[in-house]
Amino acid sequence: MKAVCLISGGMDSSTLAYLAKSEGYDILAIHANYGQRTENKERACARKIAGLLGAQDVVEIDLRYFPQFGASSLTDLAITVDRFDPDRAHVPNTYVPFRNANLLSIATSFAEAKGAGAIFIGVQALDYSGYPDCRPAFIDAFRRVIELGTQETSHIGLFTPFIHMTKTDILKLGKELGVPYEHTWSCYQNEEKACGTCGSCHFRRGAFAALGMTDPIPYEV
Q1: Model pLDDT for residues 182-218, shown as the tens digit of each residue
Q2: Number of helices and strands (H, E) in the chain?
Q3: In the chain, what's the furthest Cα-to-Cα distance?
Q4: Whose CA is closest to 81, among 193, 217, 185, 199?
Q5: What is the DSSP letter of 79?
Q6: How far apart are CA 152 and CA 74, in angstroms?
Q7: Could you report the per-residue pLDDT of 122-171, keeping only the tens digit for each?
């Protein structure tokens, strides 16, 4: 069995790739460079995780049109990265417009070309930042897109096992799977020391604290 795994280098996607491997899949890894602030760190982590999993293929894709579009603090250095705010009534500016649809389209092309029967993406719908392309309804709709847009002989499942899990649930599973979290990076802002204040840092640190574990990556605050 072959599975395309979207590996960002972050905590969730790395855990997901380890889960897919534990279920017997040979890993076909995709990593996207889209001009994000932490692109170099994410790329290094994704390569490391893919290597540890013995991925059959590791494909890096270039989506540098996202900085041209703007509207996200991840790709526009003129926009300050939002700090985590539990009372925020709007989607944080770290949202990259329709990014997951772009990634899943590419993953579907890769899966069909390689004869893979599965795509794994680590989206969440619980303790996430409200991104619209992480919602279960979006994933269900994209499953239909895959069905309609591929050959009748292609049977590609889209798997999101974390969609109803919290970050703590994911970390607990990752601990059981032996995921090397020292080789992952979650911060939206920095590459040397995680900022500790963005939404991604907030949820990651909260998960480690909830399980009484020490996060192996460095933080500024």
Answers
A1: 999 999 999 999 999 999 999 999 999 999 999 999 9
A2: 7, 5
A3: 52
A4: 199
A5: S
A6: 38
A7: 999 887 678 999 999 999 999 999 999 999 999 999 999 999 999 999 99
Structure tokens at 103: 């990634």
pLDDT in tens, 19-59: 999 999 999 999 999 999 999 999 999 999 999 999 999 99
Say how far residue 70 (Cα) sits from the centre of its chain: 20
CATH of 2-210, one of 3.40.50.720, 3.40.50.12780, 3.40.50.20, 3.40.50.620: 3.40.50.620
Domain spans of the chain, in order of start: 2-210
Assess contact for 36 and 61: CB atoms under 8 A.
no
Tokens of 43: 């790329």
Cα–Cα separations (whole angstroms), residue 183 to 56, 154, 160: 20, 34, 22
| SS3 state at 68 | helix
pTM assigned to the model: 0.97
Residue 90 phi/psi, 5° resolution? Answer: -130, 165
DSSP 124-170: -SSSS---GGGSHHHHHHHHHHHHHHS-TT---EEE-TTTT--HHHH
